[in-house]
Amino acid sequence: MTTIARSTTGSDSKDGLTRDALTVLQPGFVGTSAPDWLLRRIGEGLTSVGLFGRNIASAGQLTALTAQLRAERGDVLVAIDEEGGDVTRLEVRTGSSFPGNLALGAVDDTALTRDVAHELGRRLAACGVDLNWAPSADVNSNPGNPVIGVRSFGADPQLVARHTAAYVEGLQAAGVAACTKHFPGHGDTAVDSHHALPRIDVDLDTLHARELVPFRAAIAAGSKSVMSAHILLPALDPTRPATLSPRVLTGLLRDELGYDGLIVTDAVEMQAIASTYGIERGSVLAIAAGADALCVGGGLADEDTVLRLRDALVAAVRAGELPESRLADAAARVRALASWTRRARGDVAGPGADVQEGTAPGTDIGLIAARRAVRVTTSPGYAPLDSAPYVAAFTPVANIAVGDETPWGVAAELSALVPGTGTGTFDESGTAEDVLAAAGARRIVAVVRDEHRHPWMSAALTGLLAARPDTVVVEMGVPQAPPRGGLHIATHGAARVCGRAAAEVVAGV
Length: 509
Description:
This protein is an alpha/beta fold.
């Protein structure tokens, strides 16, 4: 190992070791333009920047932001967490123009999934974004999963596999690198890794027959990157979560599955890592285990975090805890992906070309997909609306991946179709009596999200249907609970277009 006798701060920012340490970071920042500290670190070797909803006000502003980043460095990787559906950053304040994975899985038309991913990729590329932390390849085998749910294509491994592959192909055909997640599979968890460390107690046969099937398909489809999960799988490694496990990242993903692309960690500030190892130690262990890039910035989005992680990696190399060759290899993989995206940008619409808010002009592929995903169950004697209804939205606490900034439901879309529609929002303190009092004589449209996971929601709906059996029920989460109500509509997601598709059914248009 080469010993570099320099300080890890200040004047040595351009030495190879420190540049490599900066290269493997994928940090975030606050604001709709790049702060000076970020531009300075890009000049010193930082190769990736992660964008979140807080960084995006409009397509035009996003295009200007990515141009600002590339003025500093032409090959910078601009990454985003844009799954479509419930998890959107491009349309964080309005709701997505594209349905999410569960809706696409419900339709089960891989050509449609490919087209949706391509159109989403086209929009990202037009705004200068070239790495998308998507798709989720998790098999939603645990319907009580608090963090995956509608972000998964479904519970069948083969269905998830074919749609994961189609999504990767569509996205990358638009010049945007896919990042298939959350390896080796986050679907069978009852804990959100944003808050704690989930544990999946399945044997290796189950893992290979279920969790790994979609990842094999993604690798075969040429996914440019794979994101690790902060989950503990004792059958693979009884002590370290996947993100920090050489057995998982190097032994399984690299050696056994033959994956040669970029391995990105899920955000290292998530509590599954931060509260058990700390972000500095966790980052060193992740790179040592085989990860190539460290996602950070959803929660910690400042220069100090970047410097802490940079210096921790440099110090680990100098202390002999992290082989310098491993860090160099990780940095080389980041640069290789940056080179691919730069070449790809020359083959597709570049920044500023055909930039649109919402679905592309002349293309309503997102709404088409959302309409096809709707499943309707009608009770005998149900009568269509003959006047403006009252929409009661039962609103659970959103998980961190989805966030609470993005509006959802059917009220806004239904109001556009049926003027005079009333609306109210009810949390776990709300009762059927509260809804009935607010609705008065109007027909009620009850909107729920994962009714099966929220006893308070199920109880309120039961009371409501006992009093008003003609109530329309719209389930915008995983439709695990049996359909009930005068009319039951399952949208398989809460994207804006899913709300529109449901509103059309309710309004009879």
